[in-house]
Amino acid sequence: MAKGSVVVRSERCKGCAFCVEFCPPRVLGLSAAFNAKGYHVPELIDPEKCTGCDLCGMYCPDFAIHGYRFPKPSVAAPPPEEVTETAVS
Questions:
Q1: What is the largest distance, in Å, between two alpha-carbon atoms of the chain?
Q2: Cβ neighbours for 85, distance < 8 A, ≥ 6 positions apart
Q3: Three-class secondary structure assignment of 8-44
Q4: What does the pLDDT look like over 69-88, one tens digit per residue?
Q5: Is the pTM of this model over 0.90?
Q6: Domains of the chain with CATH codes
């Protein structure tokens, strides 16, 4: 199950591939498609392994990509225990 994902702003990307190189779980690759500038942009090749660590965004010199983590599901509080009254003699 994926813990996070990435957002790529393809119009900012210059295809340097720093994000691909430094991705710890190796979930990024350069796409076969080109952006308007003629560069290959990154894409998620294995989205289920993405941790959302944002290392891709930290290394990107053009702020063209950033990672984010999905919110953890909240754990509901257990129901309060029933209080039963007992008669005292």
A1: 89
A2: none
A3: ECHHHCCCCCHHHHCCCCCCEEEEEEECCCCCEEEEE
A4: 999 877 766 666 665 566 66
A5: no
A6: 4-69 (3.30.70.20)
